[in-house]
Each structure stands twice: as structure tokens, then as C-alpha cells.
Here is the input.
Amino acid sequence: MDPSTNDAPVRYCLYARKSSEQDERQALSIDAQAKEVRQIAERDGLEIVIERHESHSAKDSGQRPEYAAMLEDLRAGACNGILTWAPDRLSRNGGDLGQLVDLIDRGKLIEIRTPSQRFTNLPGDKFLLMILCSQAKLENDNKSVNVKRGLRAKVEMGYRPNMSPLGYLHDKYAPKGERRVYLDPERAPVIKEAFENVAELGWSGRDLKEWFDNEKRFKTRTGRQITLSMIYRMMSNPYYTGRFEFPSGSGKWFQGKYEPLVTQTIFDKVQETMKGVPHAPYGAKEFAFTRLMKCGECGSGISAEEKFKRLNNGTVARYVYYGCKGRWMKQCKQLYIREENLTDQLCKMIDEVEIDKIAASQAVRTEIEKMKKVAIMIGGSAIVDQLTTAAEKFDVRAYGKHVLKEGTREEKRDLLDKLKSNFVLKDGRVLLG
Here is the structure.
């Protein structure tokens, strides 16, 4: 049978596609494409039995789920024609184009129709279809080559193609490709000071987070608070030294044509400090004394923060500070107090506060009874006698001081639950409330 003649009624699948890529920004929207095609169907009395819309690129074969479903519809006989806005909506790569031509050759696809063209099983129609789709592929390939050439020229001029990090701005009024990068007068000084705080004072990422949020009120270009992960990426970004790698991970480095924010010496010291100082996820740390007292000036609760400092001998020292939660919100002037100082003051006050002796003694006696059972099982009668004597001589206040100094966080919390006094922290001193 002559392949150009096929008397079977044509039942069409309306296919509309648009992607967000640069080369498709001029294409009609999906709704506009569908509207154009429906007008053709109404004018010529064409039957649309299926509609498939999607937002996917057609550069690579086999990446469009709706397109793949349309091919299955054609193979199954659910439709035998395609209505679309333009041939390049169907294919911009050889793989997908080959499947279309194969369906035409097998008689599964009788016709492809656009507002201005019609493709059937005639050799000339198939040839034109392949030419138009191949032209779309050639345009894709050429644009890819031109984009890479443009990026290479830009980095050789000293400018990284993508968006510069916080602390830099682009001259958006300059011609495209000539947009100068310059220091952000609002954010650059703060970020530079952040690098110096890490390099010279040994600050951790959490120290910077609190400093950015509370002292500097720092905001990103979109008006949001900086996150802890952003801080760590910022502190490890060599772009601030005036050099950048492109593409990332390629090992190809370029000297930037913009003003460095920090010296290489400071940047290297920051990497050494950040690597040597441990850090936990922001807000994930709990401390023993945070629920014990309130601020003696504004009445807010007491919070704690953990800081690390790398010492000259290479070791890392850990410090915990307690202070008023309302320091930033209520502008409270109370200063922080070291945990060691707080512990010493609490130990001195143990003799003054009222303790739930029954609960404290019972907790200790329970532990002693457990140890006595173990001693009996192993035949340690002498140990049992010693434990019995210890229980009789138990001094709850001496035990409390020991826990405050040597106990675990859980033991300290358990002890503080048994204190029948309220404490306030004011001017670096713990007072009875």
C-alpha cells in the first residue's frame, strides 16, 4: 500500500511542552501553545482524544515522562496523530526523533500537524521533519559551545560567571559581560570582621552565628538571617582572598579582578582554626544549670553557650558561659559568668539552701542497696558492712557539693530538682531569690 495514503480516521494527541532553559524563554507558554493548537483543531474539524503537557527540556533523549507516555499511546493505538505548536516541541535530539520516524514507518503515527505544517508518511514530509528537528538540535549544540566559550572568556578576565558570595555586589547597570564586581559597603566590613574574629580570637561557627544575629543584626541580600551552614561555607570560601576555582572541583584557579576581602594569611589561619575547633549543630546543646535561675535585673531566664579556643600548645580548651536570655531582646546589661565560677558559688550556698533530704537520701540509699545486692552475690560481707555504714553516715550536703563539681549533667539536674530555693544571677553573683 502507498504509505502516503491511509484512510484510517486520525485521532490526535495534543502535546505541549516548555522548559525553563535560556533557549526556550521565547517559546509560548504551555497554555498558549494548547490554545493555538485547539484553534487549528476547531477550524479543521480535528478530533483530540488525549492531551499531554509537561515542563521538561528536549535536549536529552528519554527524559520526558509525558512524551514517553504519548509514544506508548501511539504504539497501543489510543491515538494515531500528534497536534503540536512546532516540530521542536517534539524533539531536539536524535533519539526521540528516531522513535517518531519509526512510528510513522510502522503506520502507528499517521500525521503530525502544527499550525503551519503537516507531516505524513511521505518521504519528503519525513525528510523535512528530520531537518527541522535536527536544526533545533544544531542550535542547542551551538548554544552550548558558545556558552562555554563565553564562560571561559569571563573567567580569564577575572570574573566568576555565577553569583558572587555575600559581601560582594555586581554592577547591574553595566553591559552584559562587563559587570564589575565590587565590595558590598554594608556587608563586607562585617564579614571581614568575622574572618578576623575566627583567626585572632578562635571563634567557632556558633560564636559567629550569635554575633551575626544579635550584635550585628546581619541580614542576607534577601533579608534573612544567615544560617550556621552558610557561615561555615563562607569561612571556607577562597573567593574572599581574590582567587576562585572554575569549574568547582576542576583544580583550575583564576586571579579575580575584584578587591579581596581578606588576606591569604588570615584565610589560612581561619581554615586551621575551624578545622581544629569542634562544633555541634546550632541550638542542639543542653547545659546543667540553665533551668536553675533567672536574671536578677530583667527577670528573664538564664541561657548558656559553649565556646572553644585553640591554645598555643595545640590543644582545644572548652568554656561554658551562663547569662541572661533577655540580653538582646530586652537590652539587659548583665554580663556572662563562667561555669566554674557559677559552680563555686553554688557549692558555697549548699549549706544555706533547703534540700529535699528525704528524696536525696532515698536516691543514694537506692544505689547503695543495689551495690549491697551485688556484694552479697559475690560473697563480699565486708563490702556490705562498709556500704551499710556509709548509708548511715550519708551527708546530703557534702554529696550535693560533690555532684556540683564532679557529677554528670544528668546528676546535676537531678540534684537541682531537689533544691527548695530560687536563685537569681546578678552582677556575676548567685543570690537567693
